[in-house]
Write a structure and sequence with these properties.
The protein contains 28 helices and ten strands. It is mainly alpha-helical. The protein folds into four domains: 118 residues, no CATH class; 209 residues, no CATH class; 88 residues, no CATH class; 191 residues, no CATH class. The strands form five sheets. Strands 1-2 form a two-stranded antiparallel sheet. Strand 9 and strand 10 form a beta hairpin. Helix 12 packs antiparallel against helix 13 and helix 25 packs parallel to helix 28.
């Protein structure tokens, strides 16, 4: 047993004209607490902070684990000794990035470990996946050790070596547990970028957690010497946080999903993760018994963590938690899930480092095991992703991942920093893909959550609109900045004018104009902003005021963070609304004369159904016009750009071989373009029945008339024009 523990203290003081280096060595008996340092005073604060930290705890398992062996092996020395870290840094004259020799016992993580010249200037770190992350803020020193020791790539390499990919349910006694190791906080923080967890093929995972400005690195949240969390700074945004224990109960407005399916969306995000951990452990034990044929149990403290449940009672007994009883019936599927369970367990701060990444890993592991269980774990009410603006798996944020850059024309609404940049500068520049929107996308302060002020919004038509009186700002104008579409009557007319052909003549170079998704703001303001194509000589409704009082703006009806409808507000007038899907069943309230717009004899059916009937009819007439007038059949596919394709076999179905860029529809006439534009406009605002139903019906009616003539609208009724009043 060693008798003394040697600590090398190196403090760095920035002076005018350079650095002054102070070094002190102290010898501390292993069973004695280190004495506080009084002099020099400029070092005492740092030394005394460090000496009480886990990095200086010479009694910790992290530093005494190898006492019986007499030295710390190369594979462990980097993070469990001063000498090993200096060796890895190349400070001993050896190669950087490699530990060349076992380290002697008796050291901890000292000042010189982190403040040696190489570590001080370290600006990047390579993770077990082979991915290198750049960081010039000092956290690269932390991430060298707090990155874990395995990754998706590690697991896949072993499964490939043992030929277990073709049959992921095949037991292989040579397949042992692969361990992420302790406190892999950096792997959590960088999420899918470094693949610290096991990421299933075909699934999208959260990238680096974009917490909040000023809280993105290790030292932003942790004191670099004591390692303690800066709870006071946490309380800046999280008002109920007074102690470290309170952090577990944080739940931000953007995390509105019930991830673990327990019908509690008010519990802390840490509790959601724990709920999924419990479900995954249940799935792992069920799978091990039913599929692998050998019961399994887990220990958080005993290596190698997974053991044979010899009596099959589902509990790990003391005599079972021993290395000779290590679990030996892993399959590929079981290993992946067990690995992710360990990843989540071994980062106790994962709920803050990157909660969504841990939720993704746990959820996907459960679903993977469920595929092989006769009685799958009930995940009916559990949810994988954040809602709306915070859904990191949505194509609204993932469409540019392969390119590595979001173009300037898209960055405003599809990156976390795009909107504030646009408001400040009036333009956008290309930027890197981001997980989703963040709090700072819309809020100028995370202390009082004040909003970016916008007095008016310019739409693609050039028209300006606002929810506020002239010169005043309104929070809902932020919504309009993105939910306005990208085209208008004006841009369609400009394209047609440039083509210089008659209404039914094919124009070379005339292409489809796409309104883009969720142009709810354009629908709401109707003819005031001309988001849909408005035919010459026809009149259209302007802004829809709904009830004229409470339901007149975006956040009157929608939760600003989740996008969900406020059903309580709907119920004030529409008493049958109890579930979100009931909103589509709304018609009108009492004392309003109902009109049978689609001529099916039912004037009381939901207004959404009235719109759908005209929308379906328009697609039919577009198909007919393309075939009969243009001479080239057309087909529509709602999820594939550019949406309109040549129907090569004229079967009216978007076949797989037809839906590709090379087969895009290219023989447009002005008449066909206008009608197709309006069809897409209605299709891409799924809430148009609530945003401005009569405007939608007017647009559809006129489009039908344009491509099909009087016969196309013979049984339909065009809504009367009533500006700024609630309609049926």
């Amino acid at each position: 047993m060693r008798k003394y523990h040697i600590v090398a203290l190196v403090g760095v003081l920035l002076l005018a004209g350079g650095f002054a280096l102070f070094t002190q060595s102290s010898v501390m008996a292993q069973d004695a607490a280190p004495e506080p340092l009084a002099d020099p005073p400029y070092l005492a604060e740092y030394y005394n902070a460090w000496v009480a930290s886990p990095h200086a705890d010479y009694t910790a398992e992290a530093f005494v684990h190898w006492d019986a062996e007499g030295e710390i092996p190369e594979s462990c020395a980097k993070c469990h000794s001063e000498a090993g870290y200096l060796d890895f840094m190349g400070e001993d004259g050896s190669e950087f990035g490699v530990v060349n020799a076992p380290a002697a016992l008796g050291t901890v993580v000292t000042c010189d470990t982190c403040h040696n010249p190489t570590a001080r200037d370290l600006a990047e770190v390579t993770f077990p996946s082979g991915v290198t992350i750049s960081d010039d803020g000092g956290s690269a020193r932390c991430m060298q050790c707090h990155q874990g020791r395995s990754s998706t790539d590690t697991v896949n390499a072993k499964l490939t070596e043992l030929n277990l990919l073709e049959d992921p349910n095949a037991v292989n006694a040579e397949l042992g547990f692969i361990n992420i190791h302790y406190y892999a906080a950096a792997s959590s923080l960088y999420g899918s970028e470094v693949r610290g967890g096991y990421q299933y093929d075909g699934m999208i995972y959260q990238m680096q957690n974009e917490h909040a400005p000023g809280f993105s690195t290790c030292a932003d949240c942790h004191d670099p010497h004591t390692l303690e969390l800066d709870v006071v700074s946490c309380a800046t945004c999280h008002e109920d946080v007074e102690t470290v224990e309170d952090l577990r109960f944080i739940r931000m407005a953007g995390s509105g999903s019930d991830y673990d399916g327990d019908d509690d969306t008010n519990e802390g995000i840490a509790e959601e993760i724990e709920g999924l951990q419990e479900l995954l452990y249940e799935a792992i034990q069920a799978y091990a018994t039913e599929v692998a044929g050998t019961p399994i149990a887990y220990s958080t403290t005993s290596y190698p963590y997974w053991f044979l449940d010899t009596n099959g009672d589902g509990e790990l007994q003391d005599d079972e938690a021993a290395f000779p009883n290590a679990y030996n019936a892993f399959t590929a599927n079981l290993l992946r899930a067990a690995y992710n369970y360990q990843v989540s367990q071994k980062d106790p701060g994962g709920y803050a480092h990157n909660p969504q990444y841990h939720i993704h890993l746990l959820f996907d592991s459960i679903m993977s095991l469920n595929e092989s269980l006769s009685e799958p774990i009930d995940m009916e009410f559990a949810q994988r992703n954040d809602p709306g603006h915070f859904n990191v798996a949505a194509m609204a944020f993932r469409d540019w991942d392969a390119d590595g850059e979001v173009p300037a024309r898209c960055a405003r609404c599809h990156t976390s920093e795009g909107l504030p940049f646009y408001v400040e500068n009036g333009v956008n520049i290309a930027g890197e893909p981001s997980n989703s929107l963040t709090c700072s996308t819309c809020h100028t302060s995370l202390e009082d959550f004040s909003f970016i002020e916008i007095t008016e919004v310019t739409f693609p038509s050039g028209a300006r609109a606002s929810f506020a009186p002239e010169g005043e700002s309104d929070d809902n104008n932020l919504c309009l900045t993105c939910h306005q579409g990208r085209e208008s009557t004006v841009s369609v007319n400009t394209a047609i004018s440039r083509a210089g052909v008659g209404d039914d003549e094919v124009a070379e170079g005339l292409t489809f104009r796409n309104i883009h998704y969720f142009a709810a703001g354009a629908s709401l303001f109707g003819s005031e902003v001309q988001g849909a194509y408005e035919y010459e000589g026809m009149e259209y409704n302007g802004r829809f005021m709904h009830d004229g009082e409470e339901a007149v703006s975006c956040t009157d009806c929608h939760d600003a963070h989740t996008g969900e409808n406020d059903l309580n507000l709907c119920q004030d007038c529409h008493e049958d609304v109890e579930e979100p899907e009931d909103v589509r069943l709304i018609r009108a309230v009492e004392d309003v004369e109902l009109i049978d717009y689609d001529g099916d004899g039912n004037a009381e059916e939901p207004i959404a159904d009235e719109i759908q009937a005209l929308e379906d009819a328009l697609l039919t007439y577009i198909y007919a016009y393309a075939t009969d007038v243009v001479g080239t059949s057309i087909v529509y596919e709602s999820h594939s750009h550019p949406y309109w394709f040549i129907d090569t076999n004229a079967n009216g179905v978007a076949d797989e071989d037809e839906v590709n860029g090379d087969n895009r529809y290219a023989t447009w006439t002005p008449t066909l373009l206008r009608a197709a534009y309006n069809y897409q406009y209605i299709a891409k605002d799924p809430g148009v029945f609530a945003h401005n139903a009569d405007y939608a019906l007017q647009v559809l009616y006129d489009s039908l008339m344009a491509v099909g003539g009087e016969d196309a609208v013979a049984s339909y009724t065009r809504p009367p024009v009533v500006v700024a009043e609630a309609s049926s």
